[in-house]
Amino acid sequence: DDPQGFFDARAVMTWLAGPRYSLLFFWDSPGFFWAHLAGFELAMGCLIVGWQTRWTKWVAWFLFLSIIGRNNVYWEGTENVYRTFFFYLCLARCDRAYSVDNWLRRRRAQRRGDDSTPIHRLIPAWPRLLVILQCAAIYCYTGAVKNGAVWWAGDALYYALSLDHFHRVPPQPIAAILGTNVFRLATHVVHAWETLFPLLIIGLWIRFAIAKGLERPRGTARWVARFAWLALASASGGLIWWLLPVHHAAVAEGPSLAEIRVWFVVAWITGTLGLALGFVRLRDRPPSMTLGGRTHVLDLGWFCRWFLGRRVWVTLGVVFHLHLIILMNIGWFSPGCLTGFLCFFGGRELVGFARALRRRPRDDGGSTLERHADIVRGRDGRRLPLWAGAAAIAVLAAGVALRVLAGVAYGWVLLCALAIAGVATWRGRRQPGSPSSTALAYGPLGRLCVGAVGLYHVVGVAVWLLPEKDSLAWRAAAQRPFSWWLRTTQTSQSWKMFAPNPPRRSVMLRVLVTDDEGQRWDMNTDVYAAEKRPIPWIWYTRERKINRRIAGGEGSSGGWYRKWHARYWCRRWIVEHAGVIPHEVELIEVSYPIPTPEWLREHGPYDPVERLRTKGTQKSLLVVECATEPEARPNPEIMARRGLPAIDDPVARWSALRQRLRAWKRRAAAASKAKSDDAATPDD
């Protein structure tokens, strides 16, 4: 209820439990909002230059979420990218290199006469690894859910560019020539790149193991690795075999489901064995070939560079996002994703790239990091024993059964497994011969905690991104143990961009206001109006996103937002017309079908404005009478702010209609009465 605020301490705790931590729920006046925005920009400025970064990054993160959490009607993939990556940035030691904090630290060391202080300290790498895995999750998920007929036909790029809300310039002249060839090739390449992007993670890990000279598992560890590989292949193949009936569409004179399953099993076993044997061959007995007088060894490193390497997958990603920036106006989604690719390169690689751009040769003394590597704390040699890891996994597996059968909270199971691993790590012996130059962050227990939280987060994101299918009816139950963490850290996510198919109709929203004299006015709220259709479209606006969501063009009905949008136009009309109340506001969906690329190839380019006029349809979504609708009149504070007299509002405000305060008082009175009755009852 508007003036009431929190009802009691329990209400405060409910808000603290999250995840909607927006200060604008409590104070939303223009003055407070501008102060809030100024505080956010100040904190972001401190984060950018790296001053007091340890605190200002979390302040900036909270204030950012406070702004976007007030209302998510305008949310798109951009918000998911920024709020997810922002949390990983806050976990990182992003003040240790190019920052005011580091400069001040060096100045203090110079004043003390301490020449042993390194210019740059090493930075823990695990937040960077979270960003890498997050990028893989984004692209793999959005590629996997794009399983509609339009994507498989290769026409997704054509329809996406043809939507009036996205293109910078009308694409019809180009699409008439390239729509059935180049556009289809690009669609298939992008679809495959997104779906198979996690292969890059495998390539990075193999190349890391080769570069660091990691020993191959021996003895028991070798058999555990073999069993893990066999379990992964079997579980993946079994899952696909089980889900085939869900996706199988019977075709006349085509193979039956049983035949498809047989061929799949044969292909899966053959492919798994071929992959394993090929891995061993490239690792132990790589072939070689001679070209131009030079012998090239086709070993495992060569294969990972050219088939699972960054030069292929990251390059394709950069090209893809640059094309999106040039061809489509979808805001800051693509620049945000491009910054994630930076984390696929190490510090030395980025420094070398910067030196190459500046044409500055590397000095003989080596990089700054190499000159000061001996100052940082080296590897302590402690690691989790194999028996402890196996015991922790067994406890976690048993915890699932206890959760289902006995209702035991899984949090206790996690603490038990963490305790086993912690004791084993603390009491573990040092590993002889560990190179001191390979520095590990934190102590053994610190690494255990970071590893446990990181594993919990990675598994949580993977479970959260399970597709919504009837065959995965256990999805909601599996997400429950991770729900609080992902929602509170604002890393809950969904990446259904143009999935399962892109829209094949251009959908717009028209707002008609009928004034007190009965005349109807078109507010020209979408691209059907000439002033809303700049060509080329340079500057981005969220108005089009809001219109699509309200009109139902985002895959949902948009019914919840419609009444509030109509009420907003009632209030806006009153304020802009000196307090005159309009009769009604009507929301109308305006749309027209986009022709197929084959039609465009045969008939040539079409004019979107002309096609809307000849092929467009209109559908009334909602009509609101401003005199009788709740929240359809500005409150006295807003009227006074505009220098207008207050309007008597006979309609109860929305907060009063919900009657939350009255219900709370009724429950509190009943609880108080029950307590007094219990106190008056004598003991037996």
Short account of what is shown:
57% of the residues lie in helices and 6% in strands. It contains 29 helices and 6 strands. A hairpin with a 5-residue loop joins strand 3 and strand 4.
**Which structural class fits the helix and strand makeup?**
mainly alpha
Shape: globular
Poorly predicted runs are 364-378, 432-437
Mean pLDDT: 86
Strand content: 5-15%
For the sheet with most strands, the description reads:
4 strands, antiparallel
Count of helices? 29
Task: Explain what you see.
With 684 residues, the protein is mainly α. It is built from 29 helices and six strands. The chain has helices at 9-16, 30-49, 53-68, 77-91, 100-112, 126-144, 149-153, 156-162, 172-178, 182-195, 199-212, 220-247, 257-284, 300-307, 310-327, 333-340, 347-358, 368-371, 386-405, 410-427, 444-464, 475-488, 543-551, 559-576, 597-603, 608-615, 636-641, 654-658, 660-680; strands spanning 288-291, 294-297, 505-514, 520-522, 584-593, 617-625. The strands form two sheets. It has a four-stranded antiparallel β-sheet with strand order 4-3-5-6, with helices on both faces. Strand 3 and strand 4 (520-522) form a beta hairpin. Helix 19 runs antiparallel to helix 20 and helix 20 runs antiparallel to helix 21. The two termini are 45 Å apart. The relative contact order is 0.09.
